[in-house]
Design goal:
By secondary structure, the chain is α/β, with parallel strands linked by helices. It is 30% helix and 22% strand. Strands 8-7-6-9-10-13-12 form a seven-stranded mixed sheet, sandwiched between helices. Strands 1-4-5-11 form a four-stranded antiparallel sheet, with no helix packed on it. Helix 9 packs across helix 10. The longest helix has 16 residues. The radius of gyration is 20 Å and the shape is globular.
Length: 318
């Protein structure tokens, strides 16, 4: 079966999951997701359980199923390595795009960063912005507060009392970590003032690299990644909510484009995709120096960080 072909369950297939976001039952399996040995940078005691990549034909969400429960996720994130989530300002192409979009909104006002970690993005904004943040990790939230970020909660969906408060709300690399990204954007738009914008940055299921690899793409094999979006999801969401998809920027998460690395990653991924036995043999010889259990080492895909496989979507609130 092609990596990009959907396996449509029959009407009697009770194993087909409902969409975790819209509840739609029209879901199609895109294939198995390879097991992994790390969660948010931490080596696990045993490989992750088997799961599949599914696509909802109603809202266009792609999602992992089965997925960890919120309780399991909380336990796993507690053990996550702090440095896993730290970025230098100059390395973030999505931050540069977001600054350009913020400048289009007029004079600086209040801005909310959902999943702000230590507050580096909002702290880097020019004078005049009133900086707010939401962060689940207590240590990171404390560091953000020390940078002058006003912390208002741990989960955007739980925060109350800030309706229509912010000129802009942003969430970088957050949507893929939640079971229901529509609920996340709903909460962001609820807190966005009329005429303002909610922006999300995440992986792009419609990137050519992702379309080639399907359920075996490196981005969806990371076990902390649960939900996957593309421009089709963004347009469907905007239409259903009566908001404007004002901008859709594609970018690479790699800080600098390198021809050598681009060719190397292209070769590794095409080898993995089209000659998996050759790739598995190379893995067994030490390619990539993975610390994974030998039983799954050959099935873990190489990264493709040089691919233009992320997007920043800007939703304007009427």
């Amino acid at each position: 079966m092609s990596a990009t072909a959907d396996r449509r369950p029959s009407a009697s297939d009770a194993s087909a999951p409902a969409c975790p976001s819209c509840g739609g039952r029209q879901t199609a399996c895109r294939g198995p997701i390879p097991q992994h040995f790390r969660f948010a940078g931490v080596i696990l005691d045993e490989p992750t359980p088997p799961s599949d990549l599914w696509r909802c034909e109603v809202c266009q969400l792609q999602f992992r199923s089965p997925a960890p429960t919120p309780e399991e996720l909380a336990e796993l994130y507690t053990a996550a390595e702090n440095e896993k989530w730290e970025y230098a300002d100059h390395r973030r192409l999505d931050w540069a795009l977001a600054r350009q979009e913020l400048a289009k909104l007029g004079p600086p006002g209040a801005v909310l960063d959902v999943g702000c970690w230590d507050g580096q993005f909002v702290a880097s904004l020019p004078e005049g912005w009133e900086r707010f943040g939401i962060e689940i990790h207590d240590g990171a939230a404390q560091r953000a507060a020390e940078q002058g970020v006003q912390m208002i909660g741990q989960f955007a969906t739980h925060v109350q009392g800030y309706d229509d408060r912010f000129q802009a709300t942003l969430a970088f690399d957050v949507a893929e970590h939640v079971h229901d990204p529509a609920a996340l954007v709903d909460s962001m738009l609820r807190m966005t003032a009329p005429g303002g914008a909610a922006m999300i940055g995440t992986g792009n299921t419609q990137a050519r690299s992702w379309q080639t690899m399907g359920s075996r793409y490196w981005y969806c094999t990371l076990p902390e990644h649960l939900s996957f979006l593309g421009e089709d999801w963004c347009r469907t969401y905007a239409k259903n909510r009566g908001v404007e998809l004002a901008a859709f920027h594609r970018y690479s998460h790699a800080p600098k484009r390198s021809l050598k690395r681009s060719l190397s990653q292209l070769l590794a991924n095409t080898t993995y995709r089209f000659t998996p036995r050759v790739y598995a043999g190379l893995r067994s010889l030490g390619l990539g120096k993975l610390e994974a259990d030998a039983s799954i080492r050959g099935s873990i895909p190489p990264s493709w960080t040089m691919a233009q496989d992320h997007f920043l979507a800007v939703f304007r609130k009427p």
